Structure formats: structure tokens, C-alpha cells
Amino acid sequence: MRVRKSSQPVLSAMPVTRWPVLLLQAVFLVSFVTCNDAPPVPEEQLLIEKTSVPELCPRSVKEGDFVRYHYHGSFPDGTKFDSSYDRGTTYNVFVGKGQIIKGMDQALIGMCVNERRLVKIPPSLAYGSEGVANVIPPDAILHFDVLLLDIWHPDDKVETETYYKPENCSRTVQVSDFIRYHYNGTLLDGTLFDSSHNRMRTYDTYIGIGWLIPGMDTGLLGMCVGERRIITVPPFLAYKEDGDGKDIPPQATLVFDVVLLDLHNPKDGITSEVIYMPDNCERRTQAGDYIRYHYNGTLLDGTFFDSSYSRNRTYDTYIGKGYVISGMDEGLLRLCVGERRRITIPPHLAYGEEGRGKIPGSAVLVFDILVVDFHNPDDSVSITSQFKPSNCTVLSKNGDYLKYHYNATLMDGTVLDSTHQYGKTYNIVLGSGQVVMGMDIGLRDMCVGEKRTVIIPPHLGYGEAGVEGEVPRSAVLIFDIELLDLIPGLPDGYMFVWNEEVSPNLFEDIDKDKNGEIPLEEFSDYIKAQVDAGKGRLAPGFDAEKIIENMYKNQDRNQDGKITEAEFKLKDQEDKERHDEL
Ligand SMILES: *[C@@H]1O[C@H](CO)[C@@H](O)[C@H](O)[C@H]1NC(C)=O
Ligand SMILES: *[C@@H]1O[C@H](CO)[C@@H](O)[C@H](O)[C@H]1NC(C)=O
Ligand SMILES: *[C@@H]1O[C@H](CO)[C@@H](O)[C@H](O)[C@H]1NC(C)=O
Ligand SMILES: *[C@@H]1O[C@H](CO)[C@@H](O)[C@H](O)[C@H]1NC(C)=O
Ligand SMILES: *[C@@H]1O[C@H](CO)[C@@H](O)[C@H](O)[C@H]1NC(C)=O
Ligand SMILES: *[C@@H]1O[C@H](CO)[C@@H](O)[C@H](O)[C@H]1NC(C)=O
Ligand SMILES: [Ca+2]
Ligand SMILES: [Ca+2]
């Protein structure tokens, strides 16, 4: 067998431009023979001309291989006697087993896929002196223009070649896993027959349980998310002698370029990985708590799908009540404020086969979360004393006038407010509704000089609404408080009390000019004088003028701007019965 090497380098991409050259050679040969006017001498030797050789030739035909090829068969004068192209299907056959004429059996040896050969076969290696009735005359030399498209061998196995492996490859595909991947499927000659990209979605399937062709069922095993592989599947592990549809011919070797995007098992639960744990964690979330957290959501391959940060606010929800996907409901348990976790949720505990929005069906979700705060609707105010003076006998109670400093923060340390920045104390009458309920509670039973940390759940703070631009919705508040002054209040319901026995001649005492009636001015002067002399007390923390005015209006029964003795007595009488102001 003589193999003539092509004189020029031949580029695999240029078979078409070679074609006219071949034709010329064929014509030249024919004309040479006819010009000589000699009887055609049967050529005894097989002539092979490699007219196109691909750059890469990972495999070449050996005896026993099965091949698929196209050919154009002609006589030396160029007359066509047969062509696979006319039939639209490749010629498929085992090589070296006598299933084809000897010359072809020999000529195919050593060919690689996409190689093209012009083969000239003498009759002794073709149809001899008999020929084939009506097709091949006796002693015919046959020319075949052969293009090889496929090689495989019955002993072949699935071949996998990983060409990219991510740094972290902790979990790999096992039998019965569910996977999502992208692929480009080509025949061995490079013809694309299918691509998941054309459908704009991943291919999603169980693996190893017969949902896929056998070659893929094994070829995908052991992959990790992010890995890229070439999986070469011989036809007997793919679509066999039937092929599939119009794109996969019978007996075709298939080459899949695969990237794995997602992997889980229906038996999976969630996984929860601590990324950061604060030093102090006295309390952990439990079912029924209300939590505020930030999150970044990605798919397993790192594709971002959602983040609380993009909305500039935390995600807030009750835990364990089915308000969030079940995987998250579970993942939010046993967390500390300030903790960071990575929670990985399989689709059956997330958005299932349907997916939602940017989340594809059957996707595993990865949430990186940061716990901002949490509380329980049953929580009361938590009070921790930070400093107690040794003399802590006079304790604050409702009605007391308190002067205190505070630093207010959120649980994550965000500073909300501080009295120190205004350079003066915050002053309130305890129990009068001047501060949120939680603060009223937090300031109770405190003595001057005491320091406390008061934690206020939102239902005793600023509630679900928060304060626009200042306090987030449903936020737990932390107040560090120092009580600087306490002015005891009056008994409940009193705005003025006498410190000592009331003058028996009260009306006369107040009626300074002794004209038998008391205008507001006389009344006001008198009360203020008593307060100054320490004989009586006005409720601290309120506007004295207002209190006195109210007292006066109470006494001036007919509201004519003066109190008469009769009005005074009447009111005094009632008050003794009703325990009211004066
Ligand atoms: C790989 O995993 C390790 C440990 O979990 C982690 O520290 C590292 O950041 C990971 N690398 C990548 C590229 O994800
Ligand atoms: C498939 O082809 C597309 C488009 O050419 C390409 O982006 C992708 O990387 C290829 N490979 C896989 C595994 O999808
Ligand atoms: C979030 O806040 C940033 C900076 O304050 C602002 O630029 C952005 O528009 C806000 N985004 C939304 C969704 O409110
Ligand atoms: C979310 O991503 C942003 C930007 O990368 C990062 O600053 C933030 O810490 C992440 N949050 C969580 C909870 O992982
Ligand atoms: C404790 O303080 C109260 C009120 O300030 C005061 O009356 C009392 O004398 C103090 N007792 C001692 C032992 O200092
Ligand atoms: C508030 O914070 C400042 C600065 O840390 C500190 O000096 C002050 O004592 C704090 N006030 C209270 C009431 O805790
Ligand atoms: Ca008077
Ligand atoms: Ca009157």
C-alpha cells in the first residue's frame, strides 16, 4: 500500500477549496489514459491521497473499529457510480472485517475524523473481473472520495475529560442526585446537534437512574458544581442504531461539552455553616421569634438572584410560621444577633421545580445572612444594671420627674441618638406617656447615679412602623441610661399637694385685697408663694402656670374669672369627698 503524502500542508478548514484541485487531477488522469490510446492496464496498487487532514487527530481508524463516512464513488473518467451524499446518510461499517471491498477496508485504516482521502482502488481489491451487474463493469478501477465522520469500537467506554475544575470541589455528583447543567452536544466531526443554550435553560435531571442515555448517566458522575467536562459517548451507550430525530444519525458517537451548575439530592436537608459568630451570644432565635436580617442570595454556581441590600432594608419575618420558604424557616433557628451564616437550601425546601422570578426551577439556593436583631412578641423590656450607687434607696416611680442621659443604638451597634450630643439631659415625668412604653418601664425603680442597659422590643418601642429615617421598622432598641436627677412626683392624680396642714383661713389668705373674690392673679401669687416657702408642691415636670390655671378654672365654678367664697367652700367640700386637688 502506497500512501502519498499531500505535498502542501492541508488545513482541515479548507476541504472545499481543495475540491477543484482534485477534480483537475482526476481529469488529467483520465485524459492521460485516453491520449495514450493504450488498453487500460489494471492498476494493482491501492493509491491513497490525503486531501485534507485535520489539525487534531486524537484517534485514527484501526482494524475492528466501526466507522461512519461519506464517499463519492467514480470511475477514473469521472463518471459517478455511487455516492452516500445522494442518500443523505453516511455509510456505516466495521473496518477490516471483510464487510466492504478489500481496498476500502485498507484505505480507511489510519484515517481520523474529518480527514478526507482520495482513494484509487484497483479491481483486484474491488470487484475484480466480474464487476457488479449494471453498476461496475469488469476490471474497473474505482475512485472514492472519502470523508470520515465517526470512529468507535465496541470495547469503548464513556470517556470524560475535565478541562476546568473549581478550587472548591467538596461535593460531587452521585447516583440519584438531581443536577442542572448546560451542554453543547456535537457529533464527533463537530456538527452541533443540540445545545441547552438554544433553549435558554439548563438541562435538569436525575442522574444514574436511567433518565439519561447510559453514557451520560455515568459520564456526569463525580462532577462538582462549576466543573467543565467533555464527555464522549459511543453510540451503543447513546442512541445506538436508531439515532435520534433528524439531528443524531444512527451509530453516532456523541460529544458533550458540559458545565455543571447545580447539584442536590432529594434526600438533602439544608446545610448551615457559621461564617462569623460574635463573642457574646446570650440568646438564640427560636420558633415564634421575629427576626430582621440581611441576606445575599445566589445559586450554587454563584449566580446572584437577590439581596436585601438592594432594597436598603432588612428582611423581616416571623420564624417557624411558614412565612418564608421552609428551608429558611429552619435555617433561621438558633441564630445569634450579629451572626453570619451560609444557609444552603435544596429546591424541595425552597422554590421547587417551578422556581420563581430569577430563581430557576429545581435550583439549590445559597443565602449568606447576617442577623441584625430578633425578638419575641412576648418579650418584655430587658433591664441590666451596669452600675448601682451604694446608697440606692430612693427609687423612681410613676409621676417622678427624671433627668437622664442615654445612648440609643440598634442591636447591630448602629447609633440612633444620644443625649450627650445635645449637651443636656433628657427630662420626663415617669409614667406620663412622654416616652415609649418600653422606656417608661426601663426607667422604673432606678436611683440617681444608677446606670442601666435597657433593651426594648419593638412592640414596646416604635413598633412595626418605626420612625421614618430614624428607627427601622420592627427594630429592637438598646438604651444605655444614666439617671442624674430625680424629683419625686405627687401621688397619682395630684398636680399640687400641701406639705403641711392647710391654713384654716385659706380663702381669706388668698384674697389678698380682702374684696371677697379671688382673681387668677391672687390665686397664682398665693400658690407660688406656698411652693417657694416649701409648704406645698406642684407636680414636677409640668408647666407651673398651666397647673395653676387649671386649678383656678376648677375652683371658679361659674367661669366668671373670679372665685367667691361660696365657690371656694363648695369645691372644698366636694374635694374632701372626692380627694381632688386643693
Ligand atoms: C473554598 O472553600 C474554603 C473553605 O470553605 C473557603 O475559605 C474559600 O474561600 C473557598 N474558595 C472559593 C473560591 O470559593
Ligand atoms: C457551549 O456553547 C456556548 C456558546 O457557544 C458557550 O458559551 C459555552 O461555554 C459552551 N459550553 C457549555 C458547556 O455550555
Ligand atoms: C439605597 O440607598 C442608597 C444610598 O443611600 C441609594 O443610593 C439607593 O437609591 C437606595 N436604594 C433603594 C432601592 O432605596
Ligand atoms: C452581601 O454582599 C455585600 C457585597 O458583597 C457584602 O458587603 C455583604 O456583607 C454581604 N452580606 C452578607 C449577609 O453576606
Ligand atoms: C441615702 O440617700 C438618701 C436620699 O438621697 C438620703 O436621705 C440618705 O441619708 C442616704 N443614706 C446614706 C446612708 O447615705
Ligand atoms: C454614652 O456614650 C458615651 C461615649 O461612649 C459615654 O461617655 C457615656 O457615658 C454614655 N452614656 C450613657 C448614658 O451610657
Ligand atoms: Ca380679691
Ligand atoms: Ca366665679
Automatic annotation (TrEMBL):
Question: Keyword annotations for this protein?
Answer: Calcium, Endoplasmic reticulum, Glycoprotein, Isomerase, Metal-binding, Repeat, Rotamase, Signal
GO CC term, one of those recorded: endoplasmic reticulum
* Annotated ranges, domain PPIase FKBP-type: 64-152, 176-264, 288-375, 399-487
- Please write the reaction equations for the catalytic activity of this protein: [protein]-peptidylproline (omega=180) = [protein]-peptidylproline (omega=0)
**Start and end residues of each stretch annotated as Disordered:** 553-582
Q: Which InterPro entries match?
A: EF-hand-dom_pair, EF_Hand_1_Ca_BS, EF_hand_dom, FKBP-like_isomerase, PPIase_dom_sf, PPIase_FKBP_dom
Question: Which EC numbers does the record give?
Answer: 5.2.1.8
Q: What CDD domains does the database record attribute to this sequence?
A: EFh
Q: What class of enzyme is it?
A: isomerase
Gene Ontology molecular function: calcium ion binding; peptidyl-prolyl cis-trans isomerase activity
Enumerate the subcellular locations listed in this protein's record, separating them with semicolons: Endoplasmic reticulum
| Alphabetized PROSITE patterns for the sequence | EF_HAND_1, EF_HAND_2, FKBP_PPIASE
Q: Which domain of life is it from?
A: Eukaryota
Q: Where is the signal peptide?
A: 1-35
EF-hand domain span: 498-533, 543-578
Quote the function comment for this protein.
PPIases accelerate the folding of proteins during protein synthesis.
**UniProt protein name:** peptidylprolyl isomerase
